[in-house]
Specification:
By secondary structure, the protein is an alpha/beta fold. The chain has one domain: Alpha-Beta Barrel (TIM Barrel), CATH 3.20.20. Helix 1 runs parallel beside helix 3 and helix 9 crosses helix 11.
Length: about 250
């Protein structure tokens, strides 16, 4: 059995790392290369780079930060943001990404996942799925355009369809928990785990190792952190030590 991964995420806008709450009120958090190198040195099992402005405007700016991060770190790298074609994905892979994440474009055109899987292999095709609780409660719906648009589409059903189309991994972000420090949405994680067999990377709400342990117990294969790393609340190394003390075996 593969050991769980602790993943560092860099949301990039205008060439700088940014972070907010529920994808809004973004604040600057550093240089992508400096942050990535620091997190890799701390023991990050992977780095995710997501170009925030690409998702909204489709400017194709994920290439530069992805290339910068790859030049500085050797850990597995996922890059996404505004990827709408297999040609755009190919450019990211040629620049050093190991996997490419797609979100809004895949919701609009699910065939994109099949194209990526057929051309590059399922292991390269990551579905970045942003899910929000429906206003009336209960199930989750897919949100796109950096959380600005609710689609009404059932998030669990979309995950199942996306895997059938070719997604080899799901980067699952709880919009409700993003940047709040309230902990991952373990109910959402468990529902996704029951629906798909591909690896799930849990994102949104981590305040520390306890939240990570709960997400892994709920069915996540990896746990992602951003704010707590950017703000110096903790480090990847410290998180791994705390997880080990809880009985969670991690990668060293």
């Amino acid at each position: 059995m593969l050991l769980p991964r602790v993943v560092a995420c860099l949301d990039v806008d205008g060439g700088r790392v940014v972070k907010g709450v529920r994808f809004a009120s973004l604040r600057e958090a550093g240089d992508p290369g400096v942050c990535a190198a620091a997190y890799a040195a701390q023991g990050a099992d992977a780095i995710v780079v997501l170009e925030a402005d690409d998702t909204l405007e489709g400017r194709g700016n994920a290439l530069a930060p992805g290339r910068t991060v790859r030049r500085l770190v050797g850990v597995p790298l996922t890059v996404g943001g505004g990827v709408r074609t297999s040609a755009a994905a190919a450019a990211l892979l040629e620049a050093g990404a190991d996997k490419v994440a797609v979100n809004t474009a895949a919701v609009s055109r699910p065939a994109l996942l099949s194209e990526l899987a057929d051309r590059f292999g399922r292991q390269c095709a990551v579905l970045a799925l942003d899910a929000a609780r429906r206003p009336e409660g209960g199930a989750w719906e897919v949100v796109v355009l950096s959380g600005r648009e609710r689609t009404g589409r059932d998030a669990v059903a979309w995950a199942r369809d996306a895997v059938a189309s070719g997604a080899g991994e799901i980067l699952l972000t709880s919009w409700d928990r993003d940047g709040t420090g309230a902990g991952y949405d373990t109910e959402l994680i468990a529902a996704m785990r029951a629906a798909v067999t591909v690896p799930i990377v849990a994102s949104g709400g981590a305040a520390g190792a306890t939240d990570m342990a709960r997400a892994l117990a709920a069915g996540a294969d990896a746990v992602l952190a951003a704010s707590i790393l950017h703000d110096g609340v903790t480090t990847i190394g410290r998180l791994k030590k705390e997880l080990e003390r809880m009985g969670v075996e991690v990668r060293r």
